[in-house]
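User: My collaborator sent over this chain with a note saying "see what the structure looks like." That's all I know about it. Can you take a look?
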Amino acid sequence: CHSLKYDKLFSNKNTVCYVILVWALTVLAIVPNWFVESLQYDPRVFSCTFAQSVSSLYTIMVVVVHFIVPIGIVTYCYLRIWILVIQVPRRVKPDSRPKIKPHDFRNFLTMFVVFVLFAVCWAPLNFIGLAVAIHPRLGQSIPEWLFTASYF
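Assistant: Without extra context I'll predict from the sequence alone. Here is the result:
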């Protein structure tokens, strides 16, 4: 059972608007690459990809906006959820023991695993990019295998 707000928030019309918003934000995130000319072919990964050495300031902004801020927001939200889960048994009367439903816990755990996988997969590439942006000479000292592995 979910709240009455759910039907209003996720109506067919609103869902279409959310999808359009996601695509608009995606295009908005890509457009600056054309002006900075940061999309270049990289023979190490055999692909056209974001060149971290084109503009240090731009690379730092990309890492902050597309990785650090989302990780920070999601971490904050998960901490709030865990704090709430820990505090709920203390707020409820001792004789009535609320139990977390198995499907609620499974859903929470699934979303947490998705978050951890996002962080684990994107952290190496973003931290290498941030290191190269802050110290450009460091780019030559990063082993090619490490750079290539960060893409996979």
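A starting point for your reply to your collaborator: Helices lie at 4-9, 12-36, 56-91, 102-134, 138-141, 144-149.
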